[in-house]
Amino acid sequence: MVWASGWRLASAVSNAGALGLLGSGSMYPDVLREHIRRCREATGKPFGVNVPLLYPSIEQLMAVIMEEGVKIVFTSAGNPAAWTGILKEKGITVVHVVSSSKFARKAEEAGCDAVVAEGFEAGGHNGREETTTLVLVPAVRQAVQVPVIAAGGIATGRQMMAAMVLGADGVQVGTRFVASEEASSHEAFKQAVLAAGEGDTQLSLKKLAPVRLLKNPFYQLVTEAEARGATVAELKELLGRARAKKGMFEGDMENGELEIGQVSCLVKNMLPAAEIVRNFREEFTRAVQHPFI
Questions:
Q1: Which of 30, 77, 244, 245 has the fewest C-beta atoms lying within 10 Å of its C-beta?
Q2: What is the mean pLDDT of residues 14-20?
Q3: Structure pTM?
Q4: Which pLDDT tens digit goes with each residue over 92-109?
């Protein structure tokens, strides 16, 4: 949820009864501090921060999180053993995002309070294993004792129920909230998400860090480079700096990197975050009561 989940979206989700998360992957430490404080002003409900562990300013981001008294941290893209113990010493609940049962066990061993089993349908950075949510969730459920949160390909209450039937204790949702009124992503990107159909996203850049992209001219450049056997260095040069910001935040639909999940093909309207949460709850309830309709 880089460039999408700032304090407006996170606080709106929390106020609606779910757990809002600030996406710190697109924030400098001082920006994260501002978003934490503004989120706290906007909601009296719990909220958390998602932190990609491989980001270069990780130490400064973690310092801000601990100084500001954040109570819940979701970590991803790195070794959970590096920070889980430190965060838990501060009384912080730690949840780690995993793409396999192997990494789920490592997260549990590191002391994580829960894991997010994220299938390769998900948008943004993804696992190299390409394990789908339908397979990953029950595999992780069998592998660990801590709570399991399903992610990847979930945009409706019926999909939420399906994840729980597979063994999940809850769900994490990204793509559906990109197309929300409070998301900080550019309007052009939001409209591109609403217009996406089946097959309009693809997992790319596997030589670097696998990421699911919405197909656009930049995606085509990546595809052509990979087809001719581009090296890691060449792909890094193509990716350049701030490519994701250019697309998702600044609205350059031609040259920007557009990270979004497969389930974008089911997202067809822009809604307030509170209505999205309410729809999840109502659809889930109906699905439980009438599972075969």
A1: 30
A2: 97
A3: 0.92
A4: 999 999 999 999 999 999
Give the DSSP letter of residue 249.
Answer: I
How far is it, in rounded angstroms, from Cα 262 to Cα 79?
26
Q: Which domain holds residue 158?
A: 7-184+267-289
Answer yes or no: is 88 within a domain: yes
Please give the sequence-ordered ranges of beta strands (E in DSSP) within 47-200, or none if there are none: 47-52, 72-76, 93-98, 114-118, 124-125, 148-151, 170-172
pLDDT in tens, 37-83: 999 999 999 999 999 988 878 999 999 999 999 999 999 988 999 99
Q: Mark whether 110 and 129 lie in a shared domain.
A: yes
Number of neighbours of residue 269 by Cβ within 10 angstroms: 8
Domain count, the chain: 2
Cα 286 from Cα 293, distance rounded (Å): 9
Taking CA atoms, 186 is separated from 32, 141, 244, 262, in Å, by 19, 37, 11, 19
Are 191 and 96 members of one domain? no
